[in-house]
Design a protein that fits this description.
This protein has six helices and 13 strands. By secondary structure, it is an alpha/beta fold. The protein folds into three domains: 63 residues, OB fold (Dihydrolipoamide Acetyltransferase, E2P) (Beta Barrel); 162 residues, P-loop containing nucleotide triphosphate hydrolases (Rossmann fold, 3-Layer(aba) Sandwich), CATH 3.40.50; 53 residues, Orthogonal Bundle (Ribonucleotide Reductase Protein R1, domain 1), CATH 1.10.40. It has a five-stranded mixed beta barrel with strand order 1-2-3-5-4. Strand 4 and strand 5 form a beta hairpin. Helix 1 packs across helix 6. The structure holds guanosine-5'-triphosphate, magnesium ion (MG) and zinc ion.
Length: 306
């Protein structure tokens, strides 16, 4: 028996880095169950696990140690199946592109709300700024000041070019999950930070192909200076967690702040008397943020966002 860290998970095969520094190819014991979570992957990258080594060399994961946190997603809102992107992370680096592909504000806000729910700090990285025309640059500036005003650290970068190296300090000593839509440049950023082609990235010629995932499994890479970067497949749809309606507003910082002055403690800010939030939409609350809030609140169809 040994303890280890799950550093790669492709679905059927799981790589565990043992406490002794050995990489073990592991399988999951059929009766392994994690209390309370129904997911397609009971073991995720970032998990601390116990491994049992058979005499014939086969390694079985027999236990997943309690998680500090995890980022989970449901592939669609209607499906009950969820997938754990990573566990025990210190930071979520959310890559966003204004164009090629377009990242919707709904997607950004859903990710932010999820991170808030698990109290995971977020670093917002606006990538591919080299591609922006004047109009898109204005959009970038608007979004950057919006999220800055909400106290999220934001950066504008071009991962394909060298300035990503300047970001390295943000990652040292932490387990960071790289996340965002497919094609936003997660693997490109990872390679830039490490200064070598560790992860496969999309061909330059296929930048405009949407719907194709280049990274198909999660893997974590150790930084020589300490810390880990976790590359994940791009997220398309993003189902929400099982939040109670009156809870959703807790994960939008500015809505939460104002909601303390609502007359009713279970106010969902949809026209209740004495609501302190609704009158501030378009003023202290950006319309795009309130739209995202409403989209989570009314999460019964799955077509509204990507
Ligand atoms: N112009 C420009 N292209 C970039 C930049 N960053 C990444 N790209 C390109 O965008 C494409 C997609 O990059 P990837 O790193 O494969 O994207 P990904 O987020 O890992 O995508 P998935 O693995 O499918 O989730 C590649 O052709 C990259 O070269 C950038 O800063 N500027
Ligand atoms: Mg990738
Ligand atoms: Zn209210």
């Amino acid at each position: 028996m040994t303890n280890g860290l799950v550093i790669k998970s492709t679905g059927n095969s799981i790589t565990v880095l043992s406490a002794e520094g050995e990489k073990l190819d592991c399988r999951i014991k059929g009766n392994l169950r994690i209390a309370g979570i129904r997911s397609t992957n009971p073991v995720a990258v970032g998990d601390e696990v116990t491994v049992e080594k058979q005499i014939d060399g086969t390694c079985w994961i027999t236990e997943v140690l309690p998680r500090k946190n995890y980022i989970i997603r449901r592939s669609t809102n209607l499906s009950k199946q969820s997938h754990i992107l990573a566990a025990n992370i210190d930071q979520l680096a959310l890559l966003v592109t204004i164009n090629h592909p377009v990242t919707s504000t709904t997607f950004i806000d859903r990710m932010l709300a999820t991170a808030e729910a698990y109290r995971v700090p977020v670093l917002l990285l606006f990538n591919k700024v080299d591609l922006l025309d004047e109009h898109e640059e204005n959009e970038l500036n608007e979004l950057m000041s919006l999220y800055e005003s909400l106290d999220y650290p934001v950066r504008a970068i071009s991962a394909r070019y060298d300035d990503a190296v300047k970001l390295k300090n943000e990652f040292i000593g932490k387990k960071t999950l790289l996340s965002g839509n497919s094609g936003v440049g997660k693997s490109t950023l990872l390679n830039a930070i490490f200064g070598q082609e560790l992860a496969r990235t999309a061909d330059i010629s296929s930048v405009h192909n949407t719907g194709m995932h280049t990274t198909t499994f999660s893997e974590m890479y150790p930084l020589p200076e300490g810390g880990w970067l976790i590359d994940t497949p791009g997220i398309k749809g993003f189902g929400t967690l099982d939040m109670k309606k009156e809870e959703v507003g807790h994960y939008f910082k500015e809505i939460f702040r104002l909601s303390r002055d609502c007359r009713y403690s279970n106010c969902i800010h949809c026209g209740e008397p004495g609501c302190a939030v609704l009158p501030e939409v378009g003023k202290a609350i950006a319309i795009s943020r309130f739209d995202s809030y409403l989209s989570i609140l009314n999460d019964d169809t799955e077509s509204k966002y990507r």
